[in-house]
Each structure stands twice: as C-alpha cells, then as structure tokens.
Amino acid sequence: MIKYQQIAIEIEKYIEDHALQQGDKLPVLETLMTQFQVSKSTITKSLDMLEKKGVVFQVRGSGIFVRRHKRRGYISLLSNQGFKKDLEDFNITSKVIELEVRKPTQEAAYNLNIELDADVYYVKRVRYINGQTLCLEESFYNKSIITYLNNEIVSESIFHYIREGLGIKVGFSDKYLHVDKLKEEEAKYLGLKKGEPGLYDETIFHLTNGQPFDFSKITYNYEQSQFFIQANSHFL
Amino acid sequence: MIKYQQIAIEIEKYIEDHALQQGDKLPVLETLMTQFQVSKSTITKSLDMLEKKGVVFQVRGSGIFVRRHKRRGYISLLSNQGFKKDLEDFNITSKVIELEVRKPTQEAAYNLNIELDADVYYVKRVRYINGQTLCLEESFYNKSIITYLNNEIVSESIFHYIREGLGIKVGFSDKYLHVDKLKEEEAKYLGLKKGEPGLYDETIFHLTNGQPFDFSKITYNYEQSQFFIQANSHFL
DNA sequence: TAGTGGTCTAGACCACTCA
DNA sequence: GAGTGGTCTAGACCACTAT
C-alpha cells in the first residue's frame, strides 16, 4: 500500500473512531510528519486526498479541520461505483429481470464507443432498499472487456466482481442526470404510477486508460432516493 | 498568480484552442517541464488539478490524455457557484420576487449554524434560461458575513458580487438533491402544474474557514434542466 | 510576530505500458 | 527494455491567521 493512501485511511479512521465533528481540529502538519515518519509532501498529499473526498478542509495559517455533512442516508453522486458504500447500513438487494449477450442499441454503441455489431452484456435489474424499490437499472457492458457475467454475479455487486474477480481497474465516469415523468413500463417496475416523477441517471464508466466499458441507465424511485455532493472550490 | 494554476489554465486553453478531443495525447511530462520551465512536481500538481476538474486523465506508463464529455447544455453539479460558467452560451436572467432582511426559519438557522434571532438576507428569485423558467430559488445569507445586498446585485450574479465586491473567498459546499411532486405555489412560479416532477436542490456554501454563509433551496423546472458530474476513482 | 499551511525545487527511485 | 507517469524526500521560502 502506498504511504499517502495508508495515511489518509488512518486519519479518516481516527476521525471516525473518535467521532470528531465538523470544525474539530486535527494535529498540525509538523506533528503528523513526525507521527507518520514521512516528509511534508506526503502528508500534504494525504490531506489533499481527504479534502477532495470531503473529509477535511485545510485553512492556511490556521489548521486542518474535520468536514462532516449532517445528513445520513443520502447516496453520494461521486462514489463512482455502486452505492453500496454510502448505504452500508441499509439492506440493498437486486432482482435480475434480464441478462444476456446481445447487440447494443445505437445509444449504447455511441456511449461505449463500439460498433453496432459488437457484443455487449445487457443487464436489467430492479434494486431494493430495505424491501422498497429503489431503482430500475439497465446496463450495457462491453463484452470484449467484461468478458463474463452470470446470474449469480449480477445479483450481487457487479462492480465488486469487476474489480476483484476480473482485476479490472475503474478509472473515471461521466454521469448525466435529468428528471421527467415516468413511462408506463418504468412505473410498473418501480411500483409507481405513470406520470409520477422519476430521476434518470445515465453513467458511462471508463477504464483507467479512458476506454468506456459500462453504459448504465438508472431510473430512481423518487420516494426512496436522495443524493448528496460535496464540492470544493479548489478548481476556480 | 501561482505557477501551477497558471500552467493549468494554459494547458486547458491549449486544449480548447486546438479543439482536442477525448483521448488526444498531450506532451509528456519532460516536455511540459522544459516548456514551462518548472519542476516535475509543479507540472504534476497542474495536471492533478485538471484531472480533478475532468479535463485530462493520466495513465502511468502511457501518457496524458484529454478528457471530454460529449454533451452540451448540462449544468455541472460541482461548480460550487452559480451555473453561469456552464451555461455561458445561454442567456440566464433573473426576476427578484423578494429581498429583505429577516429572521431565519428553523431550517435555515440550523443549516447556517446561527441563532434564530440572527439576521439573514432572504432572497427569492425565479431564474430563466433563454426566456424559459429554469428554477425557483430561495436563499438565506448570514448577514454578519454578507453584510449588504440590494436589488441590483440580486438581479445579477450574487456570487460574482460576493467574490469580487465583498472580497469573500468561497470554500466548499454541501449539496443535497431529491425529486418530488411540485406543490401548487412552486408550480405556479415555474409555469408548471401541481404534481408534476420537480428537482429539489439544497446547498450550504461555506467560507474557506468552514463557516456556512449561504443556505439555498432551488426547485428546478424538469423540462429545462439537466445535470452532469464527472467522477474520478482516485479516492478508493 | 509566532504558528501554520501552501508552493516549489532537484533528484532518486518505483511501477506501469507498449512495442 | 525504453518511455512515461507516480511516489517520496529534505529543505527553502512564501502567505495567511490569530493574538
């Protein structure tokens, strides 16, 4: 494990274990340097990571402080994978509606940057949170990258399998959101009525080398889902 | 201007001026170091910023590549200020419904971390994009920080005034989103019908020292608004 | 003005990609 | 194995905060 990651993890763990609150002060750089026996740059890098993750904020001339948002049960829109992490305390389950190898739709081919006659794994699932319908999900996986899926994998966390089972490193993702009225079929799966609100999420996941491998369309049940995003002003 | 910021700006400008596309390769670190006459760490810092901003992605052993999402007209949920920036090509206007100093609601006091008898500027606006209603916005500004507002300021970009006029540095923000059916009054302002979908955004803006100064509640017209978020996997 | 974080350097060494 | 990005160091100096 890389030093700055390890340190970041330990600092975050320290904050959780001691139940520190927003605004609580962490030890100064000097102290952290000697405590972890690393150079200033390394500590700085750790803290930058934690700042980016929304765990701390640093104030020049003053100190390093804990950042905590006040609301629980919100899904992070930055997690870049399933929402397992944010909702650890909740019971997430899935029902697989469809799983097959097929040709991509035009939209999927475009977003995955593949030909119309390439193969994709098509997965359609309904996901539940504490027994309530959370969302309807349709995913297209580039089969030349995600070479194998089966019903068992797809019933659990697909991303866990991709990462651990296939050893694939996920790079970055582009997420597009909009709100609209539910169509008849979507409403049916979500246990809602046609015309009720739905949050539509389209996300394209890329490998570390920039190649798209997953195009997912998710429709959220508005009654069960709320989201949060922590932003920093560090980029203009 | 700090070196790494300046370099980041220049690289981004280079990408735009040359209309580089997703996957296009930038010069290698060595080249950038000599070109900008700075050390490796400085270039690295610039590139890390651009990576965080979703402008490039770096692949170890391979190179530095341009990252571009394909869709235009989406509002970035990370911009941490008005959406002026993303929608530069669009004509954003505002109609001020209400502007006054008052006592905060319980909710506003909680989120701004102030007493119920403190003073806040209350601003209610409808915002338009190309003449269509984009959103209804209610904001509470801690008056001990945002000491003065008037009708003219509030008709324009409030954040521009806060930054330039008051010289206040914005630190970070916590944004919470959910979807629901519009209430009668909200629908009226947005030119929609009661019960139609609405996207509700609550954001708390903080100073660089962590103090909240703005609590804003925005209801978006679902017909006019779409959003995007670029995520990196650099934090686990 | 003391304390604290931010920027920058020069250079060593490591880890991954790709031909 | 050559090329390229990532990690880490030790130390100088700068900029902001608090008192």
Automatic annotation (TrEMBL), chains A, B:
One family name in Pfam for this protein: UTRA
UniProt KW Oxidoreductase keyword: no
Domain HTH gntR-type: 1-69
PROSITE patterns on file: HTH_GNTR
Keywords assigned: DNA-binding, Transcription, Transcription regulation
InterPro entries: Bact_HTH_transcr_reg (IPR050679), Chorismate_lyase_/UTRA_dom_sf (IPR028978), Tscrpt_reg_HTH_GntR (IPR000524), UTRA (IPR011663), WH-like_DNA-bd_sf (IPR036388), WH_DNA-bd_sf (IPR036390)
SMART domains recorded: HTH_GNTR (SM00345), UTRA (SM00866)
Keyword DNA repair attributed: no
Protein name according to UniProt: GntR family transcriptional regulator
